[in-house]
Protein: Two-component system chemotaxis response regulator CheY
Amino acid sequence: MSKTILIVDDSPSVRQVVGIALRGAGYDVIEGTDGSDALSKLDGRRVNLIISDVNMPRMDGITFVKEAKKLAGYRFTPVIMLTTESAQDKKAEGQAAGAKAWVVKPFRPEQMLAAVSKLVAP
Structure:
């Protein structure tokens, strides 16, 4: 059974690049255009990993992660923050919210896939 990954980013091109890399590695992909949209996709279906941007309209990534972690079915879902944000305080805020990894854009797809494979149990 393949693993499902939710990508949350307000940039269609980033969702496309990440989606292509993940689908190429055999993952199923769900896309969210911002935190609010992504939260509506956490409707009980199995999600093995969330990859989220930090700076987005309507609901930013850190707020989204905090909200997602309140949902019983997603409390233990690992999260990778994928962002242009490299400031230490933002990273600390992300980790406090529940992010397990931090990948800074621009990223190499193989770098992201390495982080994904570490967090998605086989």
